[in-house]
Write a structure and sequence with these properties.
Blueprint lengths: L7 H14 L7 E3 L1 H7 L4 H21 L5 E9 L9 E11 L2 H70 L7 H33 L8 E3 L13 H11 L1 H22 L4 E10 L4 E10 L7 H66 L5 H36 L4
Parallel strand pairs: 1-4
Antiparallel strand pairs: 2-3, 3-5, 5-6
Helix pairs in contact: 1-4, 3-4, 4-5, 4-7, 4-9, 6-8, 7-8, 8-9
């Protein structure tokens, strides 16, 4: 008898059942999306972001530093122009302490702190980009796994049909031409199965390249991962979440704070800068000690050009932030619509289309066994079933990719 066709849910669990039946695979580790979220911290791009954040942290220390005083030393040999007596060495020392940093230190420190916030936001954005990249590989591995299980089931059923056809031909109940027809269909399924296994190995290898230590374990994606979909938020909620918390927008806001601090710093350049000096002079005919005050007067240059430049850059950043926010909101709206539509399509495949294709194929096979249907009808129904299963799994894959993109845009994890 021909084996019973698998249900849609059993189709997705087929890989797990097959692996559980094999002793070597009994110790396989289920890889979930939560594991990917945990292991992504070893991604080299995130390590790079950590180093850049550390550099920005050091920038605050650099901006807070008090400048060193400067010491001028002059040595010479003096000879009197009149009168007897020999010459001797002369010395002059001047210690200068700049005070202009007092006006500049505040905005420079504020700019350094904003740069640190920008680095942290960019690190979060890089994390999302890395998760998006790994998500494509992860969900493709899940799809490949389910696809291989589906084709393995179809191969087993096609082999049963081919066995039945050969038996009927031997008994004279069918024409010999039916044997090559059914064997051709069996080879087509085997060819698809080989291609699916090859693609699965490729995607697994790529995922192992980015997740440290994964290549040292016997692992597989959790069997039900492909059909576990997140809840789709309301459009207004999604757009508000993107505008309020997306790291790229946080980075732009931090850059705006840097520009605000630069405007303040440039305006303070108009303030006269002071320096305190102390000196000691030991010359041929005198010794003197004293102090002085140096003042830099902004007479010819009021720094108008740099102030206008900084203010224009700040306005440009405002428009850039708004454009970036709208781009991200548009991406979130598109991802949300695709995620919701994919969930609806997947539900129709699972509840209506796939069960009907399975039922039609099963009924035609039973009818063929008692001689009421032709082999061509059976092969056509089986071909439709295989295409339906592939479309169902492809729909789930695309839905997972769209929903994962939406989740990362919103900053949520599953």
């Amino acid at each position: 008898m021909v084996s019973v066709l698998p249900s849609a849910r059993a189709l997705l669990a087929g890989a797990a059942v097959t692996l559980a039946a094999a002793p070597a695979a009994a110790q396989s580790q289920d890889l979930t999306w939560a594991d990917v979220l945990r292991l992504v911290d070893d991604h080299p791009r995130l390590r790079e972001a950590e180093a850049r954040t550390a550099a920005s942290q050091a920038g605050i220390t650099a901006a807070s530093a008090i400048p060193n005083p400067s010491l001028d030393v002059a040595l010479g040999y003096g000879v009197p122009q009149e009168g007897p007596g020999g010459g001797r060495f002369e010395q002059a020392y001047e210690l200068s302490v700049p005070l202009d940093w007092l006006a500049q230190r505040g905005p420079r420190v504020d700019a350094a702190r904003a740069t640190l916030d920008e680095s942290k936001a960019e690190a979060r954005a890089l994390r999302r980009d890395a998760l998006l990249q790994l998500g494509v590989l992860f969900w493709n591995v899940a799809f490949d796994q389910a696809r291989v299980a589906s084709l393995e089931a179809l191969e087993a059923q096609a082999a049963e049909v081919a066995k039945l056809v050969r038996l009927r031909v031997e008994k004279g109940e069918a024409r010999p031409i039916e044997v090559p027809r059914v064997e051709t269909e069996l080879e087509r399924v085997r060819n698809e199965l080989a291609a699916a296994r090859s693609l699965q190995q490729s995607h697994r290898a790529q995922l192992q390249l980015w997740i440290k230590g994964l290549d040292q374990k016997d692992w597989r994606v959790a069997s039900a991962a492909l059909e576990v979909l997140p809840k789709v938020p309301e459009l207004e909620t999604a757009l508000a979440a993107v505008r309020e918390s997306h790291p790229l927008l946080d980075a732009s806001r931090a850059r705006a704070r840097v520009l605000d601090a630069e405007i303040i710093a440039e305006k303070r350049q108009r303030i006269p800068s002071f320096s305190v000096k102390g000196f000691y002079v030991n010359e041929l005919d005198r010794q003197s000690v004293g102090a002085g005050l140096g003042v830099s007067l902004p007479v010819f240059n009021w720094n108008t050009g740099r102030i206008d430049q900084a203010e224009a850059a700040r306005r440009a950043e405002t428009f850039r932030l708004e454009a970036q926010a709208r781009d991200l909101e548009a991406s979130a709206a598109e991802a949300r619509a695709s995620c919701a539509q994919g969930q609806q399509a997947g539900a129709r495949y699972h509840d209506q289309i796939l069960p009907r294709a399975e039922k039609a194929a099963s009924m035609l096979e039973r009818s063929f066994q008692i001689g009421e249907s032709t082999l061509l009808e059976v092969l056509d129904a089986r071909r439709v079933l295989g295409e339906t299963q592939r479309e169902y799994l492809s729909s789930l894959l695309q839905t997972q990719l769209d929903c994962n993109r939406l989740q990362l845009l919103l900053g949520e994890t599953r």
